[in-house]
Specification:
This protein has about 325 residues and is mainly alpha-helical. The protein has one domain. The chain contains 16 helices and no strands. Helix 5 packs across helix 6. The longest helix is centred in the C-terminal third of the chain and has 18 residues. It starts with 6 loop residues before the first helix and ends in a 5-residue tail after the last helix.
């Protein structure tokens, strides 16, 4: 992990990753530099990317403190910093939920990266084990803060998760059941790819997104191509769970298949498939405003890891 030198760089890596992800174009169905999404504009995403810097820096510092045994893992307060990032985002923009998924991925990534700052042998395997440790040692208080953050962000496409409904579950119930973040995300991992990341040591980010991003960047040395192709790779390999919840599994799988087909034909490296890519983008916007938002969030997490590894362009 070449660039995990201090908490400031970790936070900057998160902000830059979010800025690059939303700027990649064309990413079919997403807001990007040439397309807004109703009242949610590209500029709202730029603001949101910067607004989360303090939260990422503070949780990275707490991760460093945990590595130095100044605090124990169940004192990291992941939920508090998720909530703080959501509040900061809403303070600076009125475009709606622009980055809840990114916050849910970036806060644990920043914390786990903070634990690498003074580690003698920082590496991807150690990074992933750090993620596993901080998530499994989270607390029911973290879950209460998470629920508050989700209610505040008011994302679309969320439903009840068995008896732990985001809108109805009381703090008393969460404390009584002692549901920490690992346990609450495990309930919904089959219907939400971000929840799946929390219980698999970020399997999609590290085993699908990051290796492919490395490969395409080394091949092209083009950051925009790398971002768009990584998005298509993730969307093509793993149907977007936001789409599955909102529109059904069949539609999500069709969108996934089309993304894979365009990438296989060359994506932004082929004139013919560039035209297909723009048509795909237009189709998703015109036909129900279909937005594979979870795939975009996972792309952002991939970019953050690449930046922490020292990628430069």
């Amino acid at each position: 992990m070449n660039w995990v030198k201090n908490e400031e760089i970790i936070a900057q890596s998160g902000a830059i990753a979010a800025l690059l992800e939303v700027s990649g174009y064309p990413k079919p169905g997403n807001v990007h530099r040439t397309q807004d999404f109703g009242e949610t504009r590209y500029e709202h995403f730029l603001i949101s990317s910067v607004a989360i810097i303090p939260s990422l820096q503070e949780i990275a510092y707490r991760g460093k403190c945990a590595q130095q045994n100044q605090i124990v893992l169940n004192e990291l307060k992941l939920g508090e910093y998720i909530l703080k990032a959501v509040k900061s985002t809403q303070l600076w923009q009125k475009g709606g939920n622009t980055n809840l998924g990114i916050i849910l991925l970036f806060v644990p990534l920043a914390c786990a990266a903070g634990m690498l700052i003074e580690h003698p042998n920082p590496s991807i395997p150690v990074f992933r084990e750090n993620l596993n440790s901080i998530i499994k040692n989270s607390t029911s208080e973290d879950t209460i803060k998470l629920y508050e953050a989700i209610r505040l962000a008011n994302p679309g496409g969320l439903g009840a998760v068995e008896n732990f409904d985001i809108n109805d579950t009381s703090p008393e119930t969460i404390h009584k059941e002692n549901m920490n973040l690992y346990e609450i995300f495990k309930i919904s991992d089959t219907r939400d790819n971000i929840a799946r990341e929390w219980i698999t040591k970020f399997q999609i980010t590290f085993e699908v997104g990051y290796p492919y991003f490395q490969e395409i960047f080394q091949k092209t040395n083009d950051i925009n191509i790398s971002i768009v192709h990584t998005y298509l790779k993730i969307l093509g390999d793993i149907p977007d769970t936001f789409l599955s919840r909102k529109y059904g599994k069949e539609l999500a799988e069709r969108i996934s298949s089309e993304a894979k087909d365009i990438l296989n034909q060359g994506g932004l490296l082929s004139k013919q498939s560039i035209e297909l890519l723009w048509k795909f983008d237009l189709k998703l916007r015109n036909k129900k405003k279909i937005n594979p938002g979870t795939s975009a969030d996972l792309t952002a997490a991939t970019i953050m890891v690449a930046l922490l590894e020292g990628i430069n362009f």
